[in-house]
User: Which sequence fits this backbone?
């Protein structure tokens, strides 16, 4: 019942639900206490509503924003509490008392301060919102961007300002209970003094040298930087904040380009969530600003998603436009007819080319180039199971999706059967269970299945740890945990060093320290290597959260069980045996026909039938009947292993840049000839 209530109220936890309930019940309790009247009861109810409101705001609860939509926003709630306090005074027969008039006048004056406070906060935020936001772009030497106001002044400013009435409310309640007017007037004076001080603290940031330059000057500085940097290859991206991972997957590739790279984003939310990079990034929300930007040196533009805002750059004829996507799969999005607008479409391997031919959406075969998948470089090729450990099988199911199609995930119908078969396998294997991060977010059945599988793995891990056949090295594990803590501490220090002020200040100071960036990369690699040493190599594990990453789990595994998703396509790069569950029970032949990525997979039923074949291939690779098919499928899906994908990608960029150059020179020659004949 609690779970249902949490889902209906759209709160994140039972604690949030409790806070919401207390806040909702607190205001009727305030009314009742005022009418009775009872000062102690009113004080308790007021404290509850203050605490619950503050907690929900701190958690960023969805309920808080919904209350604003129904005219029960933050200011209204504070005003109601203050009006009920005035009602309490009236019910205590204090309406002719000087304290009553002081309370009314004090609250009116306090709310009078809300207007200049809100205006100043809005003005500061608007003036500090530059027309562009950047990373790794030197604007500090071109324009003066002043420091941001202290975060404590602007962070949740309305909530902080309204909470200053605490002194007045507490003083008035104390005055009513003890018949001591001094306490009430003192509380009112403190509230008004703090409110005035807050407004005065904000005032200096809307005048003089504390105001950032105007939009025209900022845009001119960006153009000046572009003329000096002379970018040649652009990664262009637009999308929702949840799609930041689509640009993240190309960051390392952009950093390895032979040409000068630049990343152009259209949404500030993407910039805030994008992973760190040393590549220059310019976020330009305004279409007019983008179209007026000096991108005359750019020869190739790469697009990771098909979205409407792409038109703002596609209109530029001096550069060649390429759709590179954000993953290779058999999904319909991989053959979107919109792809016709690009000069070329790049796919990983031959499978992508065939996919467009079969879809017949107007993309010509001549306009398709096979460039591999540079992102898969971290995935290591399988060398067999090391002699000093037992095999590891990764179970990485995808999530339940947006509908109840049984083919979406194996978790519901097959998950427990798969894990139970693996943990009881003989000879033994280690199980790594890494569910999709969205698992259980839509379906309570999927969440329950995930919890049961987690419990299964946990129980099996405990049983194995107690078994005499499996021995551990406590000293080595303790040392590894200590080293892991040291690495995490250093990463925390480096991350704290990079935390800036607001967006304008981050734009000014957001030039990557290459040495620090390299240290962080080295520490993350060391973290991954150390993590796997913090427990025995035979110990089952449930792995959630962003670390260790999926590819790291690939590298320590000898086989994988998964579902139809890009996870399977990526795992094929390792050359390791893998199995895919036919959850929709299409039948092996039809399942293979519909899904290219499973042509070299062991096909499992919902009862986990077929797992024996996967385990046999892991224990004795010489008897693996699908080894040759995996090699062939890998080449078909991902392209040849040599030259490396990044070399293929760079070659494709170079060839297309040459085409852009030929086109532009031709246009210049024709323009010159026209002038001569004119």
Assistant:
């Amino acid at each position: 019942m609690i779970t249902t209530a949490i889902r209906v109220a759209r709160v994140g936890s039972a604690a949030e639900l409790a806070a919401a309930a207390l806040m909702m019940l607190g205001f009727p309790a305030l009314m009742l206490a005022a009418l009775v009247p009872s000062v102690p009861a009113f004080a308790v109810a007021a404290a509850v509503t203050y605490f619950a409101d503050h907690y929900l705001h701190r958690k960023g609860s969805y309920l808080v924003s919904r209350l604003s939509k129904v005219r029960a926003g933050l200011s209204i709630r504070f005003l109601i509490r203050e009006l009920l306090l005035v009602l309490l005074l009236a019910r205590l027969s204090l309406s002719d008392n000087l304290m009553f008039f002081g309370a009314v006048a004090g609250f009116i004056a306090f709310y009078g301060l809300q207007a200049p406070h809100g205006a100043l906060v809005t003005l500061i935020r608007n003036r500090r919102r530059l027309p562009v936001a950047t990373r790794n772009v030197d604007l500090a030497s071109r324009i003066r961007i002043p420091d941001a106001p202290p975060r404590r002044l602007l962070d949740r400013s309305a909530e902080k300002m309204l909470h200053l009435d605490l002194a007045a409310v507490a003083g008035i309640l104390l005055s009513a209970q003890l018949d001591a007017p001094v306490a009430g007037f003192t509380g009112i004076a403190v509230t008004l003094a703090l409110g005035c001080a807050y407004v005065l603290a904000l005032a200096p940031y809307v005048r003089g040298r504390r105001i950032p330059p105007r939009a025209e000057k900022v845009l001119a500085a960006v153009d000046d930087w572009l003329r000096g940097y002379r970018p040649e290859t652009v990664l262009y991206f637009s999308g929702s904040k949840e799609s930041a991972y689509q640009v993240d997957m190309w960051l390392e590739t952009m950093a390895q380009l032979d040409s000068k790279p630049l990343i152009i984003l259209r949404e500030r939310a993407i910039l805030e969530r994008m992973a760190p990079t040393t590549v220059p990034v310019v976020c330009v929300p305004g279409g007019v600003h983008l179209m007026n930007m000096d991108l005359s040196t750019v020869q190739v533009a790469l697009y990771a998603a098909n979205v409407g805002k792409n038109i703002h750059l596609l209109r530029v004829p001096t550069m060649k436009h390429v759709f590179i996507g954000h993953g290779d799969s058999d999904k319909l999005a991989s053959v979107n007819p919109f792809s016709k607008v690009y000069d070329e479409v790049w796919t990983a391997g031959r499978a992508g080319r065939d996919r467009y031919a079969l879809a017949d959406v107007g993309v010509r075969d001549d306009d398709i180039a096979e460039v591999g998948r540079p992102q898969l470089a971290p995935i290591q090729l399988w060398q067999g199971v090391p002699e000093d450990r037992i095999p590891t099988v990764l179970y990485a199911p995808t999530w339940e999706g947006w509908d109840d199609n049984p083919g979406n995930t194996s978790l519901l119908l097959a998950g427990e059967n798969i894990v139970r078969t693996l943990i009881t396998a003989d000879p033994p294997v280690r199980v790594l269970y890494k569910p999709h991060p969205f698992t259980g977010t839509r379906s309570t059945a999927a969440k329950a299945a995930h919890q049961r599988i987690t419990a299964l793995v946990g129980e099996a891990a405990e049983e194995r740890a107690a078994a005499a056949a499996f021995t551990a090295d406590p000293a080595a594990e303790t040392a590894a945990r200590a080293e892991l803590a040291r690495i995490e501490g250093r990463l925390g220090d480096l991350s704290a060093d990079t935390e800036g002020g607001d967006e304008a200040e981050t734009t000014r100071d957001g030039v990557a320290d290459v040495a620090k960036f390299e240290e962080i990369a080295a520490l993350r690699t060391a973290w991954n290597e150390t993590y796997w040493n913090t427990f025995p190599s035979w110990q089952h594990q449930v792995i959630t959260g962003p670390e260790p990453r999926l590819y790291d789990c690939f590298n320590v595994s000898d086989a994988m069980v998964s579902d139809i998703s890009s996870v399977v396509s990526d795992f094929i790069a390792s050359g390791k045996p893998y199995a895919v569950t036919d959850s929709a029970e299409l039948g092996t032949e039809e399942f293979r026909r519909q899904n290219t990525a499973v042509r070299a997979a062991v096909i499992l039923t919902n009862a986990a039938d077929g797992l024996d074949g996967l385990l046999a291939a892991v224990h004795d690779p010489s008897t693996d009947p699908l080894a040759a098919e995996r090699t062939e499928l890998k080449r078909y899906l991902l392209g040849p292993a040599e030259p490396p994908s990044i070399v293929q990608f760079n070659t494709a960029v170079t060839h297309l840049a040459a085409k852009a150059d030929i086109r532009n020179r031709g246009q210049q020659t024709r323009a010159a000839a026209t002038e001569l004949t004119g």
Confidence is low (pLDDT under 50) at residues 1-9. The chain has 28 helices and 14 strands. The longest helix spans residues 645-677. Residues 288 and 312 are 8 Å apart (CA to CA).
